[in-house]
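request received
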Amino acid sequence: MALLQIKNLHVSVETEQGPKAILRGVDLTIRSGETHAIMGPNGSGKSTLAYTIAGHPKYTVTEGEILLDGENVLEMSVDERARAGLFLAMQYPVEIPGVTVSNFLRTAKTAIAGEAPAIRGWVGEVREAMSNLKMDSDFTERNVNEGFSGGEKKRHEILQLELLKPKFAVLDETDSGLDVDALRIVSEGVNRAKDANGFGVLLITHYTRILNYIKPDFVHVFVAGKIAEEGGPELAARLEAEGYDRYVNA
Amino acid sequence: MEIVRPGSTGHSHGAGIPIQTRNERLRSANPAEHNAVSKTDEQWRYLDAEALGGLDSALLGNAIDSIQTQGPAAIERVDATDSDFGRAGLPEDVATANGWAAATTALKITVSGEQSEPTTVSIANPGKHSAAHLIIKSEAFARGVVVLDHTGDASIAETVEILVGDESELTVISLQDWSESAVHTSAQFARIGRNAKLKHIVVSLGGKTVRISPTAEFTAPGGEVELLGTYFAGEKQFLEHRSYVDHAVANCKSRVTYKGALQGDGARTVWVGDVLIRQAAEGTDTYELNRNLLLTDGARADSVPNLEIETGEIEGAGHASASGRFDDEHLFYLQARGINPLDAKRLVVRGFLNEVIQQIGIESLEARLNESIEAELARSNN
Ligand SMILES: Nc1ncnc2c1ncn2[C@@H]1O[C@H](COP(=O)(O)OP(=O)(O)OP(=O)(O)O)[C@@H](O)[C@H]1O
Ligand SMILES: [Mg+2]
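response:
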């Protein structure tokens, strides 16, 4: 049983006018097997939270802590965090010139597992995961994210989630830009990976649509850099009907 | 006549430098007939005269005695009385002419029959202010591979003539694996016979100043040329590659692919790719590509494709040129998948340069070059 704790997290970014505070005291605890949905208006700091967990250098933690099974995550480099079991499916995955998907996946798997995967089993595993996500097998010979459509990039993120088997997965708007079929395929991918590995999920989304496939145990309303309200799945339905007005104007 | 020149900044020719069509360039073995090295001359606009360490003006000595060869090709020494001497091309710049004048005896390497083993020509520590003249010839219907392996320290002005006989298939690989302070200019002129194929691979890793100019001229229909190059410039290294394909006759095909990586302060590369499709060259099929990957700030890559087209009756003609950065977002993405920063850089650079390296087809050589690339990567890694 793994545990991810975020305590009183304050984060700022550097701007031309000096540091700007974005997260203002986030508290969140996730256990293995739990799914937490985070919903909130544009610019409220959801991606900032996701990137801060992953360790993006743009964000500075000014207060608070992040603990993974009691270990101080904030002291770890980005790659150490990934090897410790944190995974971020990005809202905008970047293109990597010159690196094929197959080479990238093998290198990442080797880094995270600490040893190269046995070649035969690995190729089969990749092929099966791709076919589950309805990804054409010739993606493996293309450069990472280069020329991928928005939806293909998201499938590629979930492919990595399936193969890298983290302890906790942060999914930043994985559902944005997906058509109805792709949404189902990608959601099933997340569920399949979760059933196999029992990881905890932090799911950032604007839409309740995805929550029909990936059932959240908890829903958190994120406003102005912190959690404004928490509840069960019924909270998502209420947000969809009422919007964020009552929080924003509160 | 149409001269296609990309108009974007950094790619266009600067003001004050006259645009000249490529076949108007002076060709002469006499150094005195060439212009002195000057930034106002298109040929020298990226390079400081001092960087040549005197190759353009000093008295040079023939390095032929220091050259070792190994492999199946026939080796002989020839001078200007040999009918192949000066047949593939004449110097188009003062440094090449200066070297030509000094290297009056050339080393001739002749490939005949089917040679599956490569012939290696080792140019190791040829010395300061040296010159060399090599003639590589494949006889009609022959097949073979010749590797020019440049290592150690040197300042050398070199000419390589490549005569690709009718119906023959020749691969020439020029490796610049010099030590840090070497200065090297090399004009490599190829003359392509009927239905002949040349695969020309340039790999420039070492040296302080390296300038390689591969030229391919088609002389009869059915010829095919692949000019491939890869380079990795480290701190304060200057690596320049100027390719030229002369489609003088009909129905020939050329592909030019140069890819380079740059890392460190003052790392500097230049690629100029000229392609001329003359009036008679109907049915020409040509494409040239240059890509550069900048790994750090303080590095600069220039990329200048020039396509001159004198006939409309062609199969295809195109070019692509792009210089991209390996930046913090790329690094973050790879790190977020558990890959440490040095491995991340390795992954990207290896992937990027491998397209050309793997074309070499000689395993031991590929391994050695990959090691040199690794060493370069580890050197100025931050
Ligand atoms: N470099 C910066 N300078 C100024 N403001 C910034 C900078 N980087 C981020 N911000 C601000 O931080 C806030 C939070 O951004 P973040 O991307 O975390 O929002 P989000 O909740 O993910 O929004 P969305 O739903 O649109 O994805 C935004 O108001 C954004 O403009
Ligand atoms: Mg966001």
